[in-house]
UniProtKB/TrEMBL annotation:
<dbReference type="GO" id="GO:0003677">
    <property type="term" value="F:DNA binding"/>
</dbReference>
<keyword id="KW-0804">Transcription</keyword>
<keyword id="KW-0805">Transcription regulation</keyword>
<feature type="domain" description="LysR substrate-binding">
    <location>
        <begin position="14"/>
        <end position="154"/>
    </location>
</feature>
<dbReference type="Pfam" id="PF03466">
    <property type="entry name" value="LysR_substrate"/>
</dbReference>
<protein>
    <submittedName>
        <fullName>Miscellaneous not classified regulator</fullName>
    </submittedName>
</protein>
<dbReference type="GO" id="GO:0006355">
    <property type="term" value="P:regulation of DNA-templated transcription"/>
</dbReference>
<dbReference type="InterPro" id="IPR005119">
    <property type="entry name" value="LysR_subst-bd"/>
</dbReference>
<keyword id="KW-0238">DNA-binding</keyword>
<dbReference type="InterPro" id="IPR050389">
    <property type="entry name" value="LysR-type_TF"/>
</dbReference>
<comment type="similarity">
    <text>Belongs to the LysR transcriptional regulatory family.</text>
</comment>
């Protein structure tokens, strides 16, 4: 009886649980290498499964325990979900290296004239935030393509992406950050 009502303890070194973590594609690329290294050193028997979940799947999965943790830009999940800001993320603009429509610093007129690609990984809110700015009254740009993965942006014309993974995204592609 006492064991049932006592607060459970977690010992990273001894636990052998499998955790399900909701992440976007770029979240996997950004966080998993460091998490895997930490787990190897501190919790060698713990394993991770990543999932891509819509907002509704995420809420249901978190409530039922099917999803243990969600990491990303996930506004408006409600009071039933405990949130903690790990860092503040800004967006940067990336474009193909040597893009003929961008010379040096990106001017508002160039931003308006370029066709844009918006990354919209399943379950994230990035696309809505980026599209709101791009199509709003200050920019009035055209969204020419929507893709389901930030990693698909590599061969694109120009796009806004989360700043944190910019280096990783650009490292595997012919992209450059634009100021």
């Amino acid at each position: 009886m006492r064991r049932t009502i006592e607060k459970p303890t977690f010992s990273a070194a001894e636990d052998a649980r499998r955790f399900r973590v909701a992440l976007s594609d770029i979240g996997e690329r950004s966080f998993l290498p460091r998490l895997a290294a930490w787990l190897a050193d501190h919790a060698p028997q713990v394993s991770i499964d990543t999932v891509s979940a819509s907002r509704e799947e995420l809420l249901t999965g978190l409530a039922s325990g099917e999803i243990d943790l969600a990491v990303g830009f996930l506004p408006g999940l409600g009071k039933q979900v405990h949130e903690k800001r790990l860092f503040q993320e800004k967006f940067v603009y990336v474009a193909r290296r040597g893009h003929p429509g961008i010379d040096g610093r990106l001017q508002a007129s160039q931003l308006r004239a370029l066709p844009h690609v918006v990354g919209s990984p399943h379950g994230t809110q990035h696309a809505a935030a980026v599209e709101k700015v791009l199509t709003g009254p200050r920019v009035r740009a055209v969204v020419a393509m929507r893709v389901g993965s930030f990693l698909s942006i590599g061969p694109s014309v120009a796009s806004a992406v989360p700043r944190c993974p910019r280096g990783r995204l650009a490292a595997g592609c012919v992209l450059a950050a634009v100021r």
